[in-house]
Structures
1.
Amino acid sequence: MKKEWKTSLQRGEVIGAGAASGSGIWGVIALLGEGGYAEVYEVRDLSTADSPRYALKIDSLKVKQEPRLATVRAETEKLKRLQSCDGVPRLVEGGVGKHHGRSYVVMELFSEDNLAVFQQKAMLSIAAIRSIGLQTLKLLQSLHTSGWLHRDVKPANFVRTRDSDPAAGGEWRILDFGLARQYISKDGLIVDAREGYNEFRGSTNYASIKAHQKEELGRRDDLWSWFYMLVELLQGKLLWRESRQPGRRASGSDDEQKKTAHRMKLRALSDPNTLFASGRCPEPLVKMSQHLAALQFKESPDYAKLQGWLAQLTSADATRLLQPPPGVLRPQNGVAVGRSAPKPPRLPPQAPAQQWPHPSVGLQQHAAPGGVFAHGQHGVWPGGAVPNGGAWHGAQPQALTAHHLLNGWAPPGHHLGQQESLDGSFWAAHSSLQTPRMSNSTEEYVGQGSQQSSQIPQAVPSHLSAVPENWDQQLGQLGSEFGEEFDQPHEPSMPHVARQQQQLKRSAEIFDDLHADIAGPLAKRPRPSPAPSRVPAAAAPHLLEEDASPLLHPPLPSSAAPAASAARPAQQISPKAVSFAPDVSSIIPALDPANVVALHHPPAPSAALDAIGRQKRRRHLPDRPVPPSPPLDLAAQGSPAARQDQAEGDGMASYGPAFLQSAISAFDEGQVSVNAKILKKLVPSMDPAEAYVGLGWAGWCLIHNTTPETRLQAKQMLNHLGDFFKSLARTGKGA
Ligand SMILES: Nc1ncnc2c1ncn2[C@@H]1O[C@H](COP(=O)(O)OP(=O)(O)OP(=O)(O)O)[C@@H](O)[C@H]1O
């Protein structure tokens, strides 16, 4: 299908002065494509009867305004030198012509299908994918053998020949040498990476990790882009493109898109399964990824091996890609939620109390802020995955999970699974509100983590050797999924919250498993003496045991709090004072998307929420009416159509943005006490999702060293929320 005619040249327009100037006379027939700085037209030579058709590439009008952007001239120079290379378009005129100050070049014409268009037209068979993969790989190999790198490998830069059979996968050629660069010097040596090089080259979705890191690119980077293309051919999409679905506005800036793509590519480096919504990467692609990851800058890729792996792709792989493996929660909006592990036997209820962690756990060295805790990619943790999924750590200088593990926060008598379930909810709510900062810090963290990992002593706590190998992978995967979900720059919305809650439930399960796994081995160890409370008495003079009582404790009226504190002067806080987890654990089952869904038609932000956040909403969110969300059929979520609906609803059916925005600022430490008041006011009109955010907020205040007053408010908030969730679980309605 020809593109809509909207660019600078018109049908029938004549370009070139003809034989007198040594050029053809080119009559414009159709627009074929347009890139960043050029337009490509189908033309024919008007000076010849029955002229074949050609492609004419001309600088776009933008270039005329900003001549430094001119690319056609430079590209033609490169194309001239590449004429002996396989699959490169043949130049029809030796040189560059000028048309009203814009450079153009005429070349061999291919079909109107570039690979980006082609793969959208029909579901490709695995045989077609193998054929396209092989051809494009060979084109790159040929280019590399000629001493050139392409540096912008992407589907739009491969184009099918006109006479090839699309049903058989077509014959493919390579285009667009604007960024191509010679990597072999005149004396036949591979050129060193330029010192101080710091440029991004390529296209966000297909750029290699090194490209994202603005490093000099080599052959391996062209092949990483090829690899991502292959993933896209197999799956129909790249997961980091999620937020740019057809018909939806792009929800992030280019920078944000780059960051998301970079982060997800880094994650896929240690776990290629994450490239696929099904959570399973075909084995041949795992091998490709490992091969590419192992290549040094100057090293030649093993094209033959890559071809061999490509040939191993079978239709069974393709079928599996569409099916989550047993135990993987159904992907939501294309994102696999996590792999469930076989459940270890639960501890009997009367299991002896444990202190966590055992004092012998030597993990303090990992507690330094900035990401050194998790670097499992290099095998520091059993199972070899990042235990907090990167995202956990990225959320705060001290990861919440790390915080528990490292600081022995949970008092004796406390069950880790419950505590960690709570922790998961804090983290989830917290990170969902931290979107922009979260992506930054996660990215920094991942980079830093992998850089520093080699310098960090191997410190696997001894008791963890008794823990199944994959527990940290599970946490890692979960953390990453959370990270991925919440790093997406979209507005909070119903489906978003439902997913969030489903993941939270999953986290509770994993943490419970973890608890059972760890508590068992620990039970066999000598019972340590009780750990001191994490909150020293001097730092928490106003905290009373009652103030921190379990969730069902009746809330203090807000005005009563200071009075209560005054009546009972400073008192050592007992371990029980922070032991609210059992109650929170009991509300975790109530955090069920079905409950939220049932209560949430239509989403109706309360007037109070609206008023408080109006100003902020104006600043942060588009000022538009909130449409009622259609009933969400959870049972149908697995179907592609339902997922699409859900995806498109995402960002549309947003509710309570004012609340969420005000909660976002609650996480700025300076403002916590102000926002505590706001949150408390809102409790009566809360819906479950908002309550959930409040839960996260309160937990965050308790875990971090906020002021004693704020912690008190947070505990009151937990009381309210406890009632709320209990009522939700009992009646299907919030309090
Ligand atoms: N010789 C050709 N035959 C047929 N179609 C072509 C030809 N050259 C380019 N096209 C079409 O035009 C599109 C844009 O071409 P090209 O990638 O060379 O432009 P660009 O401005 O350099 O793009 P970008 O900014 O994306 O790098 C291609 O994706 C392809 O669909």
2.
Amino acid sequence: MKEGPTGVGLNELKRKLLISDPQHFGVTIPHTSRPKRNQESDGVEYHFISKHLFETDVHNNKLVEYGEYKGNYYGTSLDSVRSVLSKNKVCLLDVQPHTIKLLRTSEFKPFVVFVKPPTMERLRETRKNSKIISSKDDKGSAKPFTEEDFQEMLNTAEMMESQYGHLFEKVIVNDDLTTAFSELQLALKQLETETHWVPVSWTHS
Ligand SMILES: Nc1ncnc2c1ncn2[C@@H]1O[C@H](COP(=O)(O)OP(=O)(O)OP(=O)(O)O)[C@@H](O)[C@H]1O
């Protein structure tokens, strides 16, 4: 499980992990109530369900997280996480910090990595040629980072870390991308090869 402020590089790091070992890592397929487009297939880009069913699922706590955008719901179900785990893969999931509590169970055994922005100076330097890809925008528009984007990223990161820092198992500063990716790979490898501490209740199941 990874998290961090918008634009910090979560998608980029997730993409790199998936490419590096597609047998080992997996991602969830989200649910949406938006109508399926012609070129899309159910269960590939999204699980397409009705608005009514989405609301029932929300009511029955079947979703890890969900939100509404342009009148349609989008969300990730607990079952979609289970489906990745059932293939014996490590599920890469970005979540809001308040969701960590929900996932800290013996079933999911999350390893929480906080992806943190570097200093303002280093953001300016490293993101010179980077574009923010608006995930919310259907056309996937991309525009350069502004000073405000950097400031917001730093503010959000500080807020997240002060409020939820105790829930992070690993903090990775995404300064140089290649270095950050290597650190992430190493942390995940160590997680699988070395002994680490978990709540005692997790050892009984
Ligand atoms: N270390 C880095 N150096 C330079 N550019 C980077 C670095 N990390 C990410 N980027 C670029 O910054 C942009 C935003 O990254 P990305 O889309 O991964 O962010 P995100 O955290 O997933 O954002 P969101 O939550 O809004 O989807 C991308 O164009 C990405 O290539």
